[in-house]
Structures are given as C-alpha cells and as structure tokens.
Amino acid sequence: MIETAAAELLTVAQAGGAAELTQPEVYQRVVDNASLNLSFWANIALAGLSILLFVYMGRNVKDPRSQLIFVSTLMVPLVSISSYLGLASGLTISFLEMPAGHALAGEEVLTMWGRYLTWALSTPMILLALGLLAGSNLTKIFTALVMDIGMCVTGLAAALTVSSHALRWFWYVISCAFFVAVLYILLVEWPKDAEAAGTSEIFNTLKILTVVLWLGYPIFWALGAEGIAVLDVAITSWAYSILDIGAKYIFAFLLLRWVAANENIVSSVASGTLGSASATPADD
Ligand code: RET
C-alpha cells in the first residue's frame, strides 16, 4: 500500500519534469561546480560592498525625491545579495528534465529560477529610479513597472515549463513582448521627459547602459542550457553575473553619484510629477 503510494508520487514528480534532488544535493552540485559557485559569490561580495558604498554616498541627501531615488537604487544590491544567496545555497535552483524537442531532451538541466523571481523585485526598482530621474509621470512609471514585472514572471514561466518545448518558447516570446514595452518607454517616452526636466545628459548615459546590458539577458537565456543550449550552465551564469555588475552596481553608482551632486535639479523636477497621474509637465 505504502509502496504503491510512493511509486505513484514518484511518477507524478517525474511527469512534472522535476528531478528528485534534495536541497543539500543541489547545494553539493553547486559547490562541485567551482566556476558556477564563484559566479554567485563574486556577486554576493560586490552587492555587499555596494550596499555599504551607497549608504555612505546617500548620507547627506535631504531632498525627498532624491531620497526616493536613493532608496529604490539601494534596493537593487539588497535584492541582489538575497538573490545570489538563494542560488549559492541551492534554495532557488532546481534540476529540471527538459521536454522532447529541447537540445538536452531527457536530461536534468540546472535551472536558476531564483534569478527570474528576484529580477521581478530588482528591475522595477531600477526603472523607478530612472523614471523619477527623467521626471516622468505616474502613468508612465506604472506602465514601465508592470510591463517589467510581466517580463520577469513570464520569463520565469519559460524557464520552469517542462511539459512542452514549444510552450517554453511561447512564454519566451510573451516575455519579449513585455520587454518591448519597457524598451519603448526607455527609448522614446522618458528621453523626452528628461529633456524637459533638465536631466537628459545623465539620463541618456544610463539609458544606453541599461538598454545595451538588458538586451544581453534574453540573448544569453536563448543561447544557454534553458534555450538552445550552445552555452553551458556555468558560462550562462557568468554571463548573467557580469551583466548584473554593469546593469546594477555600475548603473547605481553612476546614478547615485549624480543625484548626490545635483539634488537641486532633482527637487525642481518634483513639483508636477508624482503628484498626479495626468496633469504633469511631462504630459504636455
Ligand atoms: C528573460 C527571458 C525571457 C525573455 C526576456 C528576458 C529578459 C530579461 C531581462 C532581465 C534583466 C535583469 C536585470 C537584473 C538586475 O537585477 C527573462 C531572460 C526578455 C531584461 C537587469
């Protein structure tokens, strides 16, 4: 009786595509893959240093809007340190059996699903900081944030779907569609707002950094073990970790250094912007 139930459970688990590994076993596999493990710990160290540096840089900022930019930017390394700790401990990694049609069909592929989950928390913070810097209105900030969260959640679905190879890519395309909406706001809407707000120089630098680096994520997803598998798991993980360094820490450093030195400009954009969703200078 018990054996039948256990056998049934095993079948259900296998049908779901999840290989039966305990958390200590996943952790052991991470530790055994020195390059993969280093890609996690390098970011944990960098996130820790960034948190200390950013708190120090923001110590004298008094203007509430500048403070909001600081808090949302500080959230990025805070989320990141938690995200990488989840990966390094094996908590947010699963070994998933890829469906027929996938380059690694039938094999257990290491899936760092914690990354996609925590991007849903860190990337909206990046966009909030950029939207505030550009002097955007609430409507555009809200749109950018929800589209971005949609991108991360459907990206997570693409990584976790093991029932059908085609459906993995269907999720991927949906995620890309959300991404296009984010890119539109970044490349078309906010530059106009930043021009009006007098922050266009720093905004344009950060915009280019963001757009170029963010485009790397879907490319590496497609090339990595979860996509067409021409890159192995450790290389994909390093690619994400290196993109993260630019998209998070370098981005945040440039932004916060500018905001700390230009509080007066940031506070003068504040008046119409977040007060109302419609009647703002940026809407003209
Ligand atoms: C996925 C795969 C599905 C298609 C697309 C993706 C885009 C991901 C991006 C991630 C950016 C992450 C950052 C994290 C910083 O903490 C989910 C890889 C479009 C753009 C900047």
Detailed description of the structure:
The protein is an all-alpha fold. The protein has 10 helices and 2 strands, in the order H-H-H-H-E-E-H-H-H-H-H-H. Helix 8 packs antiparallel against helix 9. The longest helix has 33 residues. It is globular and about 60 Å long. The structure holds retinal (RET). Retinal binds next to helix 5, helix 6, helix 7, helix 8 and helix 9.
Low-pLDDT residue intervals, each spanning 5 or more residues:
9-17, 275-284
Bound molecules: retinal
C-alpha end-to-end distance: 72 Å
Number of helices: 10
Percent helix: over 70%
Strand order of the largest sheet: 1-2
String of helices and strands: HHHHEEHHHHHH
Mean pLDDT over all positions: 90
Look at the helices and sheets and give the structural class.
mainly alpha
The biggest sheet amounts to: 2 strands, antiparallel
- Rg for CA atoms: 21 Å
Which keywords apply here?
mainly alpha, disordered C terminus, two-stranded antiparallel sheet, 284 residues, 76% helix, binds retinal
Write the layout of secondary structure elements.
Elements: H1 2-15, H2 23-32, H3 34-57, H4 64-88, E1 94-97, E2 108-111, H5 113-134, H6 138-160, H7 165-197, H8 200-223, H9 233-261, H10 263-273
Antiparallel strand pairs: 1-2
Bound molecules: retinal.
Retinal binds at residues 116, 119, 122-123, 151, 155, 158, 172, 175-176, 179, 214, 217-218, 221, 244, 247-248.
Produce a short descriptive summary.
The chain is built from 10 helices and 2 strands.
